[in-house]
Structures are given as structure tokens and as C-alpha cells.
Amino acid sequence: MQNVGTFQPERLYTQIVGVVLLIWGILGLLIGEVVNLVNFELVEDLLHIILGVVGVYLGFFNPELRLDRMFAQVSGALLLLLGILGMVDPTLFGLFALGLTPLDHAIHLVVGVIGLAIGFYYNTERIAAPGRLGRRI
Q1: What's the CA dihedral at 50, 54, 14, 16 to 10 degrees?
Q2: Where along the chain do its domains lie?
Q3: Rounded Cα–Cα distance for residues 114 and 112 (Å)
Q4: Is 81 helix (H, G, I), strand (E, B) or coil?
Q5: 17: which residues sit within 8 A by CB, 6+ positions away?
Q6: Tens of pLDDT along 48-71?
């Protein structure tokens, strides 16, 4: 159940990350390798679009906050893992031809940590429900 007027960080994260990933993926398909600061490759662009579509759907069209929290947890874990593995091997063991850049690593690590923090720390439904503090949901 969505609580109107309650700050919902898990919903906000899902909306922002969903929109940004969707735009970033489409932009990557359109401009290709024009920008050298970040990596734009087909595989990464498609992953951004898929994750972005899921985030936009959950953030704007789904009333259940638990799914927003799950999106923050899963996308945070994936992005953090991508950031760590990208620093070990920028091509992700041959998945990317050109390899991820240091800016890619920084973005993946920061957004991943924020997603995990929001996904595992915040539970707006539990916080906003009177008489239910202390009970696990």
C-alpha cells in the first residue's frame, strides 16, 4: 500500500534510476562511440534499456513499494558488481570490445551502493505503519 505524502526513497530511486538508464541506453544506441568519457556498446546499452524499462514501470506504474525496494536491491547489486568487475577487467572478460572507462566504474559503484543502501535500509511501508515498528515485513 502506498502512503500518500510519505517520503519514499525506494520509489524515488527506482524512478530516477529507471528514467536515467532508459535515456542512457537509448542515447548510447543513437550516438555510439562519439563520447570517450563513458562506454557506449550494444550489450551495455541493451542492459541499460532493459533495466530502465523495469525501473520506469515499477517506479511510476506499480503501487507496491516492496517491488521498488527489490529493484533497488537487485539493480544496486548488479551495478556494484559491474563496477568492481570492471575495475578488474574493463572488457568484463571479453563482453565489451572497447572496455569500461574509469567514469563508468565510478557511476556503477556509486549508484550501486546507493541502491543497496536504499534497498536494504529503508522500508517505508514498515516505518509508516503505526503499531508495526519492530515487526519484520
Answers
A1: 50
A2: 9-128
A3: 5
A4: helix
A5: 51, 52, 55, 71, 72, 75, 111, 115
A6: 999 999 999 999 999 988 999 999
Q: Can you tell me the distance from the alpha carbon of 81 to that of 55, in angstroms, rounded to the nearest whole number?
A: 18
Residue 14 vs residues 31, 50, 60: alpha-carbon distances, Å: 25, 13, 9
Closest CA to 17 of 60, 51, 40, 50: 51
CB 52 within 8 A of CB 25: yes
* Distance (Å) of CA 96 to CA 20, 62, 66, 77: 21, 33, 33, 20
- Give the residue from 99, 103, 81, 80 showing the smallest Cα distance to 90: 99
- Distance CA(59)–CA(103), nearest Å, equals 26
Mind listing the pLDDT tens digit for each residue in 23-36?
998 988 888 665 56
CA distance 134 to 137: 9
Among 133, 123, 111, residue whose Cα is nearest residue 69: 123
Residue 133, C-beta contacts closer than 8 angstroms, at least 6 positions apart: 126, 127
Phi and psi angles of residue 57, each rounded to the nearest 5 degrees, phi first: -60, -50
Q: What is the pLDDT of residue 88?
A: 94
